[in-house]
Amino acid sequence: MPPRTRATTSSFFSNFFSSKLYAVVGASNDPTKYGNKVLKWYIANQRPTIPVNPNETTVEDLQCVPNLSSIIPLDAKNTSVSVITPGKITKQILEEAAKLGIRRVWLQPGAEFPDCGEFAERVGIDLIYGGPCVLVDGPKFIVNSVI
């Protein structure tokens, strides 16, 4: 399966931005890391956001959870996940998301792992991957979305 590029994923972006909650896996308190920049982007765009990182208790003054399973209450059908983790960790996150029924996941650049697209399709996840970044591409697609 080819990467989902900007030209082929407008429906994926629309679905992604129709969620009521956004989990940022790999959120960080370090302002130089993309896990922090991506989290701040969701906050700046007034999206209900929860940081996910097993090593933090709060990030940007938001209560942090260690994993997706710790989001309570979880409305999987209305949750989108941005992933900013090394590829070797990302597969575990996709497995957890699938188990929980979360279908909308965006792998930020660098979070991919080999065959991530095929894996996501097999477990029923609508995956944005292969280059698009919420910091660059998000503004184009968030405009028409509704919280």
Automatic annotation (TrEMBL):
InterPro entries: CoA-bd (IPR003781), NAD(P)-bd_dom_sf (IPR036291). Residues 16-111 form the CoA-binding domain. This is 3337_t:CDS:1. It comes from Ambispora leptoticha.
